[in-house]
Design goal:
Number of helices: 11
Structural class: alpha+beta
Radius of gyration: 16 Å
Helix content: 40-55%
CATH architecture: 3-Layer(aba) Sandwich
Number of strands: 4
Strand order of the largest sheet: 2-1-3-4
CATH class: Alpha Beta
Strand content: 5-15%
Distance between the termini: 37 Å
CATH superfamily: Glutaredoxin
Length: 220
């Protein structure tokens, strides 16, 4: 059992379904390879500090969410949609002053083991360490040309944010975290989530890093 999380089978998923049962709690549903989740890093961190938030870091399976909600991977979208996506990523990264490779070497890639590491680090129970890991993995993909499907990379990223990478990786391979990942994805879809990032406050969903201003208003 990880020292960073409770047993996922005893964790009350009502807290996940209703992100504000605990005071100032937000459920953050995301893909670990999402460019828009990467673009939202600093904005979400600012709200955490401003409102003294607890954030449940809840990575979802990309293909399961797309498959259930009608989403299409970028490479399969119409060329006009692909072009607009690239234009928007360029505009937002420049606007936010974030270093970003618009065509990263390791995208798309399998985020499964990284997601299970986030949950093993206490993501579903609001552990800030899990947030550091999420931010590190997103940065690895979009700014550092690293492959977050590679175990050595996962260990290095965890180590860089102050977590015991090798130990956490070993814990994440346990079947309980695979089941927790599947359950988190299922819960997200049931709540109406269809893309990344989605921030949930109570019954309200805020989709996209450009909706953080509305989340800020709701928290205020």
């Amino acid at each position: 059992m990880s020292e960073y999380a409770v047993d996922p089978y005893t964790f009350c998923y009502l807290n996940v379904l209703n992100g504000d049962l605990m005071s100032r709690t937000v459920n953050y549903y995301h893909f670990l390879i999402s460019p828009y989740s990467y673009l939202g890093i600093n904005g979400l961190n600012a709200l955490v500090s401003k409102h003294n938030l607890t954030v449940n870091y809840l990575p979802m399976s990309v293909m399961d969410v797309f498959g259930e909600t009608g989403g299409v991977p970028p490479a399969k979208r119409h060329p006009s949609r692909q072009r607009q996506r690239m234009d928007e990523l360029k505009r937002w990264s420049e606007h936010l002053g974030l270093k970003m490779n618009l065509t990263p070497k390791h995208f798309p890639t399998d985020q499964t083991l990284g997601a299970q590491m986030v949950l093993a680090a206490g993501g579903a129970t609001g552990n800030p360490d899990a947030g550091k890991l999420v931010n590190g993995l997103l940065t690895a993909v979009w700014a550092e040309e690293k492959d977050v499907a590679d175990e050595a990379t996962l260990i290095a990223v965890a180590d860089s944010v102050g977590l015991p990478g090798s130990e956490l990786l070993a814990q994440a391979k346990d079947e309980q975290w695979a089941k927790a990942y599947a359950k988190t994805t299922e819960t997200a879809i049931a709540a109406g989530v269809f893309g990344s990032p989605t921030y949930q406050l109570g019954d309200e969903l805020y989709w996209g890093q450009d909706r953080l201003e509305f989340l800020d208003r709701a928290l205020s």
